[in-house]
Fold this sequence. Notes:
Layout: H1 3-11, E1 22-28, E2 31-39, E3 43-50, E4 63-64, E5 71-77, E6 84-91, E7 97-100, E8 116-117, H2 128-137, E9 146-149, H3 151-154, E10 156-157, E11 163-164, H4 167-181, E12 185-188, E13 192-193, E14 206-210, H5 217-229, E15 233-236
Parallel strand pairs: 9-12, 12-15
Antiparallel strand pairs: 1-2, 2-5, 3-6, 4-5, 6-7, 6-8, 10-11, 13-14
Amino acid sequence: xxxxxxxxxxxxxxxxxxxxxxxxxxxxxxxxxxxxxxxxxxxxxxxxxxxxxxxxxxxxxxxxxxxxxxxxxxxxxxxxxxxxxxxxxxxxxxxxxxxxxxxxxxxxxxxxxxxxxxxxxxxxxxxxxxxxxxxxxxxxxxxxxxxxxxxxxxxxxxxxxxxxxxxxxxxxxxxxxxxxxxxxxxxxxxxxxxxxxxxxxxxxxxxxxxxxxxxxxxxxxxxxxxxxxxxxxxxxxxxxxxxxxxxxxxx
Length: 251
């Protein structure tokens, strides 16, 4: 985080904060590892714990920035893609201690497990033609017919213990159906990380992580990519107003 990042953050105009907070793989002085950053303004101490340190709550402390931004950050060498982690927060308030998932994580464990996973967002998009025409497709005077689905229950594999489809499996079923029925867009009920399997997803614990129930972030990208390549717009039901009370979440 630079001083300019902090300034824009405090101003409420930092539109790429996900590039700064969370867990980001990088090299420092030729050593590969991961940089961690989290905002915890009421914390007394913040550490990173994970499978790479035996979930030790003391071995990898983060440093509080000097500028009173409330941001804690640090680089941990030899930690990378696929490693599980959480932030351990020791609060100023009544010495309250809690293990928190990373609110800026891109990938999380499948519930009921609650750890974040260090990941990357590498993907070769093939939807350039759609992106060129997106404004035209989404214009106020353009025809719009939206098909809304709940991903987990729309189509299931009955022969495989009635499981839901994966992001990639959904392509084979959804694209043809949408085109046959004449819809221009598909709207997914919330797919951001949420804890309770029986819900519709309106209890977000990770705004930057598609639920891992159906695959990796790249699998989700593939789904969106294929829809775009077939001239189908994608709308996500984004839920900024419903926080669950799960201790590992945002509350």
